[in-house]
Please model this.
Amino acid sequence: MKFSLNLNKIALLRNARGENNPCLEGFANSAINLGIDGLTLHPRPDHRHATSNDVISLANLAKSRNVDFNLEGNPFSEELNEFMGFNNLVKVCQPEQITLVPDLPNQITSDHGWESGDHDQKLRESVRLLKSLSSNSQISLFVDQLKGDKANIDIIDYAQDIGVDGIEIHTGQFSKSIESGDLSIISSLSELILKANSTHLFVNAGHDLNLINLPELIKIGGINEVSIGHAVIVDALKNGFEDTIKSYINTIKE
Model:
């Protein structure tokens, strides 16, 4: 399993003072030196944390350091003030991974995945466009683990129909269940991963993952990569950045 570090929260802290401190590139290089596999950024149109310039800078840094860069965001997000627009960022950055998330501009965080709706044809067209803009990028859909109280198996057929290469499972509900001591959530997650693994789709996971719930996710297996940001920064406030990165790498790679 690979570990991609999301640096949005570092950008949020930097923006509070309007200067380049803390420096994203510095923390990115430190984490790469310690052994992470990739970098993730999820810019929003209001640039409340990661900016378009951050995306370009870290994409270039990732290429120079030979790690993957994962660009997350809503493919329908167009140019707005200083925000370059999602498609333009993909064209400029040529990211190794593109994770499509159906977030709205006013959402605090990504709280749900894609499902079938009136946007389906537009989403198919967006995937085709992104593949033409960055032909070597692997594209995934951010999807929910559950549909009602059962594994969201139908989302696999949906992802294949839309034309993506993989899925990223929203692990928010999984994380909350593990925190409360309810391990019943594991069976539905295992079912979804097994179904995806039986197709050509790769499987990533992200949202609210931390050192407590990661071991349970690792036991399931079948996941290509986890993307973690918020918990890393929270743990770094207590234990220091380098020691925290080492802890996550040791947990994920054990």
DSSP finds eleven helices and ten strands in the chain. Strands lie at 2-6, 38-41, 68-73, 97-100, 138-144, 146-147, 150-151, 166-170, 202-206, 225-228.
